[in-house]
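Q: I'm writing up a methods section and want to include an example of the input and output format. Could you take the sequence below and give the corresponding predicted structure tokens, formatted cleanly so I can copy it straight into the document?
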Amino acid sequence: MGAVSTPEYSRNKIHPHKFALWVAIGSIIMMFGSFTSAYVVRRSAGNWLEFKLPDIFFVNTLVIVASSVALHSAYVFFKKGNEKLYKGLLLTTFVLGIAFVILQYKGWEALNAIGATFTANPSSSFIYVISGLHAAHVLGGIAALLVALTHAFLLPFKPTIRRRQRFELVVHYWHFVDILWVYLIVFFMLQSS
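A: Here is the clean output for your methods example:
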């Protein structure tokens, strides 16, 4: 006789989409861990240009942390059924995500202005590559936010389990790119001190 699935068992299983997201996040963590390890190894090899990270990168950090707080609040209000605050905070998160990418570009311009161009030295090359890869992952998050905004503004407001699960995936990914950026900025600060 086959095993009978009980509701208790079903509720304890991780959703396949959430599992896929966590596997992807694990892969991304390994990739950024490899890049930051390579940064440390290459720095110790010599021929390394020391420079101060432009302040705009720290402003950028505040922007992405604020976006994460806004998105978490949107999720809380979604679950509580407060449509107005949910939509407003979701839109705020999207705008802050776009602002992060724009400020990231301004950060690269500031690096360029101090002579830390992409090809000037391995130290600046690493900054461009690592922050550029992170920006690419933020753009992926912005695409997910765009889908969430489409659901929020085009579909009737119904905080169903399915919509909550989809929104939760966006929230988890966005918090991940936020935490990843905080890790990277702290890493760069510690390496330059």
